[in-house]
Amino acid sequence: MSQSQQASKAVMTAPVLSRRRFFQGLALSSLAAGSTAAAAKTGSVSGPPVQPGEDLVIQAGWVLAESGGELALLRNGCVLVRNGAIETVQSAPFRSSLPRLQLPHDILLPGFISGHTHCCSATPSRGIIENPRSYRRPLELVEALPDADMDALTALNLAELLRSGCTTHVEMSLSLRQAESYVRKAVPMGARAYPGAMIPGIERLFAIWFREADQVLFDAEEATLAEIARNLDFCRRHMGKGDGRTRPMMSPHACDTHTPATMEALAAAARDLGTGLHIHLSQGQRETDTVRRLWGKTPTQWMDSFGMLEAGPVFGAHMSGLDWETDPPILAKHGVVYAHCPSAGGAGNGTQPYPEALAAGIPVNIGIDTHSNDYLENLKLAVLYGQARHELLDQIGSPRRSQRPTVQDAVDGATRVPARGLRRDDLGVIRAGARADLVSVDVSGMLNGSGALPPEPLNNLLYSSGRMVRTVMTDGRLQVFDGQFIADDPQRLLEEGGEVVRRIWRQLEEEGWFTQVPA
C-alpha cells in the first residue's frame, strides 16, 4: 500500500494497538452487543477499541459545525466526545492522550435523520419492482414470515441504514410484528429510533386502501380501533429502551384509511404519548380527493380539526397530493415536517414536490421510505430530481411557486430540519452539548473526490453514495469504523437476510409473479 493510500484510511492513535488486538477487543466488548464484529475480515486499521461511552477526539479534514445557529465548515476541525455527547468543537488541535480518530480526507457531519422508513421490507422488493411491478405481494409474504426470518430481514436493513450514515429513524413498520422486530434489532445496534406500527397494518391495509366501496372502510372501524389500542401498548412498553434512544410514536397509514372515530382515537393516543405522529400525508391526489369527498376537507385540514397537528412532532411522507392553496400555512404553523423520499416506489419512480415545499416554507426532511437504504444516495437524488423538477415547472409556466434545491438544503434537511421537527435541539448539529451522533464521508477518494481534500466538500456529496461513508456513531458508540460495519457481523447479516429473500423470491416465482413486463 502506498503512502497516499495509507493516509486516506481512518487512523486511531494514542495509544496504538495491533490490528488483531483491535478487532479482538471489538469482539469482546459490548460494542457489538454480544455479536462478533466481522470487520477484521476486511479492515486494515490499527488502533484501540472504543467502548460505548468512552471518550475520544475526532480530527477531520472538514467539520460542519454550528455556532449561534449558523453553520460553518471548519478546516482540520476537532471534536471532543465525552460520555456520548460533544463537549468541544474547535479548529485547533486538542492536546490530549484520549484515543484519537483521524479522518484527514473526510467531512464530519451530524448523523443523518430519516423522517420515513419501513425498515423490514426493503431488500425483498429491491430490484424486482422497477419494471414497474406492484410491491403488494412481496410485502404480504414478508408479513407471513416467522419471527426469526423477519428479524433477519430487519437486521440487514438496519445495518444498511446505519452503514450509509442514517443514525436516527422515524420508523413506520408495516405491522405490529415488524415494529416488534425493529425494536429487537435497533436497540442492540444502538440506533436512535422513533418506531411505530402502520395502522391499519399490512395484513389489513390493501382491502381498505384500494376498496371499491366506502362501506369497507366503515366495516373495518372496530378492528382499526383495536389495532390502535395494541399499538399504544407497544409504544408504552418500549418507551425509553436503549438508554433512552427509543421513543415510539403513533403511525397511522393515511387519512383515507381512517374514519372520524379512529382519528379521534389516534389523536388521543398521540397526546397520551407526547411523541407525536408519523403518517403518509396526501401521498397522492386520490387520497386528497377521497378525504374531500367523505369529510369536506383536505387530509391536512382534517388532521388539524382533530388537534392531531398539535399532539407533538408530526412527520408526513410524500405530500404529492397536497392542496398548495390551503395546506402549506397549516403545516408551517404547526412545524409539520415533510419527509421527501426520492426513492419512494423504487428507483426512478417519479419526483415529489420538494421544490414547491421549499418555496412554501414547509420544513423538508430527506427520507428513505422502503426500497433504498442508502441515505447519501437519496440525499443526492433529492437535489438532482428537485432541480430537474424546478426547471420543468419553470419551462411549462406552472403557477405553482418552486425553489431550486441545493445540496445545502438537502444536508440541512437531513440533519437540523428533522431534529427541530422532533423537538430535539441536541440532534442534527455538531456543537457543544449535542449528542455524538456523527457520520464522516471520504470526499477525497476515487469517484467522488480528486485525491485531495476539496475546497467545497458539500458539493462532493453529490458524487457520493453510502459506500463513501467511513465513520458512523450514535451517542458516541462506533457502528461503522474505517468503512466497515462493526455493530454486528455484516457477513452473517447478509447470509441470513439473503436466505430469507431467496425463499420469498422462490415463492413469487412459483406463483408466476415474475411475468414479462413491457419496457
From TrEMBL:
<keyword id="KW-0378">Hydrolase</keyword>
<comment type="similarity">
    <text>Belongs to the metallo-dependent hydrolases superfamily. ATZ/TRZ family.</text>
</comment>
<dbReference type="InterPro" id="IPR011059">
    <property type="entry name" value="Metal-dep_hydrolase_composite"/>
</dbReference>
<feature type="domain" description="Amidohydrolase-related">
    <location>
        <begin position="107"/>
        <end position="477"/>
    </location>
</feature>
<dbReference type="InterPro" id="IPR006680">
    <property type="entry name" value="Amidohydro-rel"/>
</dbReference>
<dbReference type="Pfam" id="PF01979">
    <property type="entry name" value="Amidohydro_1"/>
</dbReference>
<dbReference type="InterPro" id="IPR006311">
    <property type="entry name" value="TAT_signal"/>
</dbReference>
<dbReference type="InterPro" id="IPR050287">
    <property type="entry name" value="MTA/SAH_deaminase"/>
</dbReference>
<protein>
    <submittedName>
        <fullName>Cytosine/adenosine deaminase-related metal-dependent hydrolase</fullName>
    </submittedName>
</protein>
<dbReference type="InterPro" id="IPR032466">
    <property type="entry name" value="Metal_Hydrolase"/>
</dbReference>
<dbReference type="GO" id="GO:0016810">
    <property type="term" value="F:hydrolase activity, acting on carbon-nitrogen (but not peptide) bonds"/>
</dbReference>
